[in-house]
Amino acid sequence: MPRPDVDELIVSLLNPTVIGKLAERPDPVTWILDNFYIPEMAQAKPDKPTIELYGYQRACIREALRVDANGKFIYDLVLWSDLKKSAKSSIAAAVILFRAMHTVYGSFKIVANDQKQADSRVFSYAETAIKMNKALNKQCFIKKHLMTLPDNTHIEAVPVDPAGEAGGGDDMIEFTELHASKDKGHQRMWAEMTLSPLKHGVSQRWIDTYAGYSGESPILEPLYRQIVKDENRFQIDDPDAPADLETYRLGRTFCLWNTKPRLPWQTPEYYASERISVLPHDYARMHKNEWTTSVSSFVPREWWVNCKVDKVAEIDRYREVEIALDAAVDDDCFGLIVVSRNDDIFPIRFAQKWTPPPNGKIDFRDVERVVKWCISNWNVVELCYDPTQLHDFCSRLRDENIVRIFEFKQGQPRAIADKALRDKIRDRRVIYEKDTTGIDDVSQHVMNANAKTDPLDPKNLRIIKRAQDMKIDLCVCLSMACDRAAVVLSQ
Question: What are the backbone angles phi and psi of residue 385, rounded to the nearest 5°?
């Protein structure tokens, strides 16, 4: 049978009889606790591994999905912002599945910054819940990015595509990790995916996220500034709601902006470990739900000072080393560093910087002389370099078979290497002597460095200058050298 005209169908669904039927759906929390399965509970409850919801989560779900006497939702927009590892995505998936299983001819969209994220987060949790629940699995069909549920209802995972998704009459649109939506495509997508006036009161937009970087979240930050104010704070009328719960209401918008650990696994021991492993500004953003900047010091001074040792074991002519070069030729510094490897420890053996004279350039003959001196004194396995300014120079060294050359790409590989260097310094796996040639310059460049987090991938960061006139070339050299030494040098 062909699907009815969408507008005609929408109007028919909004008549008082249908609204009454929708209002008779079960309590959302009860349904979720009975039907939404998660792998984490498979061992504890093998017969029925349903999700656990804690008091403030139950109260907020009930409030977010509260309806009036006519069966229409009180809220059009739900902003659910909670600490990292607070089951935000699982709750969003559970709510979507609950709504979809109780909607006729429903359309539900899960929007993320790209297709991979759309599939791997909320959509994936809903898919897993269906597959684990035999009763639901019999009623649903899943293919790639689309789920077909009873009563001709669909749940679809979509990437950012403003033109392709404009004008849909959706029953619910879920935006995952909105803090990372920052470019014009994301903003157009948010604008295009507004709710249909034909479904006012029966459709919602739902956001799951934690705080972003101030000035870099053009959709989420204005919402936060407008809603999360003392005059908008209110206490949910629910016995499960703690008195200190941070909930806000503005017009037809409901917001949970939680800043406190409230779950059993959010222990002091967990947070003590996280304080060491992530940058301070990212710790505040992810684990305190606070707005921060994306830049902070690359490493604390005490971490670098702790890497100093009384004596670095001497190496002979045959011990393998890695050389790294980083430079910009005009009005900037040129750096060279030599690193060896001892198990998972990376001693700095030698460093040198060159600064061009006023209105002049670095003499590459001197750089080549030092490179050849290093080769004559150590077993140089490889020389890695930043190709931005050094391609011609290093290509000639390769052509002359002076040393094996590795071109260190400056996108994702550098971000991974920079994060790994920070971890090595934190764990004292980079070491140096106070009398190592050039170590004072290395120390200065490390202290000059800031770390800028990638908002789309907080696990990675980039070493950047704290100020334009502060040099960091030797810090960049150290990042590349340690990264390559871990790959090519024998332990």
Answer: -155, 160
Stated as kind and residue range, the H or E segment containing 490 is none
Sign of CA dihedral 117, 87, 245, 241: positive
Q: Which long-range contacts (CB under 8 A, 24 or more apart) does 67-71 make?
A: 67/23, 68/201, 70/16, 70/19, 70/23, 70/201, 71/19, 71/20, 71/22, 71/23
Both structure tokens of 449: 């460095």
**Domain presence at residue 115:** yes
| Segment 310-360, tens digit of pLDDT | 999 988 888 899 999 887 544 567 899 999 999 999 999 999 998 877 777
Q: Structural domain tally of the chain?
A: 2
* Dist CA 395 CA 398 (whole Å): 5
Q: Which residue has the tokens 């971000």?
A: 415
Strand partners, 478: none
Question: Residue 478 and residue 323: Cα distance in Å, rounded?
Answer: 9
Residues 50 and 194 reside in one and the same domain: yes
**pTM over cut 0.70:** yes
Reported in sequence order, the residue ranges of 141-201 that DSSP labels E, i.e. its strands, are 141-143, 146-149, 153-158, 172-176
- Local structure of residue 50 (DSSP, 8 states): B
Can you read off the two tokens belonging to residue 461? 């960061």
Residue 281 belongs to a domain: no
Kindly state whether residue 178 falls inside one of the protein's structural domains.
yes
Predicted pLDDT of residue 160 = 63
